[in-house]
Design a protein that fits this description.
Layout: H1 3-29, E1 53-58, E2 61-66, E3 72-78, E4 81-86, H2 90-111, H3 131-156
Antiparallel strand pairs: 1-2, 2-3, 3-4
């Protein structure tokens, strides 16, 4: 594994740890005692509010977390000074690639004269199969058994042995 891949994994791991830690104080504060939840509060002064950015040291620089937007950047010292580069969000990249591939499959299906395949809902993990799934499984098993039995019968027939 290359050094840049290891660094990217380390940055992603640090980001996953820092984001919940940064949000925890805001969630823990809630509404002050005696103030109903729906009542608007006065905005905190600049002196008492938390800073917008949080930093965490990592190998080769520091991770910068923007507490307002949730963006994570890797800051490192370069020849021109400190520069920060946004850490790519791999989930967004994966979802974009999946969408692109689905569109490409639909385009190829149309070119071949087939209808685009509608998305079948994926059952939740641990859900029991429905009756149609069981019927399909049994039909497949029956076809498999009959074909296997037929092949065995064909192999035994020339020798005159007993047929199954």
């Amino acid at each position: 594994m290359t050094r840049s891949a290891v660094d990217l994994r380390l940055v992603t791991l640090c980001a996953l740890v820092l984001i919940p830690l940064a949000a925890a104080p805001a969630l823990a504060q809630g509404a002050p005692q005696g103030t109903p939840q729906g009542t608007p509060q006065a905005a905190p002064s600049a002196e008492t509010s938390a800073p917008r950015f949080a930093f965490a040291p990592v190998e080769g620089g520091a991770l910068k977390l923007d507490r307002e937007t949730g963006l994570v950047s890797l800051c490192a010292k370069r020849r021109s000074g400190f520069t920060c580069e946004a850490v790519p969000d791999t989930r967004d990249a994966y979802e974009a690639e999946i969408a692109r591939l689905k569109a490409e499959v639909d385009t190829l299906r149309r070119a071949a004269g087939m209808q685009p395949q509608p998305g079948r809902p994926v059952p939740p993990p641990g859900a029991a199969p429905d009756a149609t799934d069981l019927d399909q499984a049994f039909a497949y098993a029956e076809r498999f058994y009959r074909r296997l039995k037929g092949l065995i019968d064909e192999l035994r027939a020339p020798t005159g042995e007993e047929r199954l």
